[in-house]
Structure formats: C-alpha cells, structure tokens
Write a structure and sequence with these properties.
With 87 residues, the chain is of the alpha/beta class. It has helices spanning 13-25, 42-56, 58-61, 72-85, and strands spanning 2-4, 30-33, 65-68.
Length: 87
C-alpha cells in the first residue's frame, strides 16, 4: 500500500499514524512516498511514524515499511526518530 505523505500534511499526524497502523494490521507492506516534499516538521514524523515504531518495535516492521523519494533532511530525521523511539 503506497501512502503519499503529502496528502496527510494538511491533517493531523494521527491520521497518518492510523493509516499506517490499519495497513500493518491487515498484513500489508507500507510504502511511505515523500514525493514533492522538501521538508516536514519533526513533530509530525515523530507523532506518526515514531508512534508506530514505538508500538511495534522497528525490528518487527522494518521489512514492512519502505520509504520513497525522501530528501536527505527527512532521511536524517527518520533515522533519529528510529534511534530514539525504538525500544
């Protein structure tokens, strides 16, 4: 399931979290596509992707979530969130 992150920037990060969670619970692979996004607030990623990582443990989902079209600044933020939120 491809999730276009840009479609969620105008709503709450909880909406993105719920969308990711719903697809993971159905056993689907999730692709987060960051097309046409140059930057995103750290809090938005932390409160959506970070909550998923904390809930599921990154090792349990690392092969079920992929990232596309991610600029360097966002990649670095994702790496930091994984490091901080993975328990």
């Amino acid at each position: 399931m491809v999730i276009y992150v840009k479609n969620f920037l105008e709503v709450t990060e909880e909406t993105l979290y719920n969308n990711i969670k719903k697809n993971l619970e159905k056993g689907k692979r999730v692709v987060l596509d960051f097309s046409n996004i140059e930057s995103v607030e750290y809090a938005f990623l932390n409160n959506s992707l970070g909550d998923i990582i904390e809930e599921y443990n990154f090792e349990a989902i690392e092969h079920r979530i992929n990232f596309l079209n991610v600029v360097l600044d966002i990649k670095l933020a994702i790496k930091e969130i994984v490091k901080k939120r993975n328990k």
